[in-house]
Design a protein that fits this description.
By secondary structure, this protein is α/β, with parallel strands linked by helices. It is built from five helices and eleven strands. The protein is 23% helix and 25% strand. The strands form three sheets. A five-stranded parallel sheet has the order 6-5-1-9-11. Strands 2-4-3 form a three-stranded antiparallel sheet, with no helix packed on it. A three-stranded mixed sheet has the order 7-8-10, with no helix packed on it.
Length: 173
């Protein structure tokens, strides 16, 4: 008896569809500034001195990547409460928020490290971060990581970087 119209996928085929996005915040999606004002849209005022501004096209970009990736993990060298506020205000539905305390320390600051469970659970891992030098991927030389590196955002309302990334987004199937 034939199964018409029934598509059965093997476990390996299903796993091959899993894509993880490791997403940075500061200078990638937002800009924290101590200046009295910037010309970008204000996301929120963090404290008496620090204001957080949205990068142009960030809402469209986040909608775009939500539809592309299986899961999104926020990974920032900023403090956890700051990262949580940004994620909440931008409506990022991340499965995890990793912050400064999840990073390794080095002489030059903080290092973001790849976790074994990500290697085991995802076929593709993409890193969207304006600072690729803060990543240590050396523990998994057999794994290929795709870095998407936007130019550093410094608060300009004329910034088109996220729009440009969406227009040229890699089709990593």
């Amino acid at each position: 008896m034939k199964n018409k119209g029934l598509l059965i996928k093997t476990e390996k085929q299903v796993k091959a569809l899993r894509k993880l996005c490791l997403l940075d915040l500061d200078h990638t999606l937002i800009y924290g500034s101590y200046a009295p004002s910037e010309d970008s849209e204000l996301l929120f005022q963090y404290n008496q001195y620090l204001k957080v501004y949205k990068r142009p096209f960030v809402d469209h970009f986040l909608h775009f990547i939500k539809n592309f990736y299986t899961d999104i993990i926020i990974y920032t060298t900023a403090k956890r409460d700051y990262a949580k506020l940004i994620s909440k205000d931008l409506n990022i539905n991340a499965i995890q928020i990793l912050s400064r305390r999840d990073c390794s320390k080095s002489n030059n600051g903080y290092i973001k490290t790849i976790r074994k469970e990500w290697i085991d659970n995802y076929d593709q891992i993409h890193i969207i971060d304006d600072s690729p030098h803060v990543w240590d991927t050396n523990a998994y030389p057999e794994k290929e990581f795709l870095f998407i590196i936007p130019k550093e955002f410094r608060g300009s309302s004329k910034d088109l970087e996220l729009k440009s990334i969406m227009d040229t987004f890699p089709d990593a199937t």
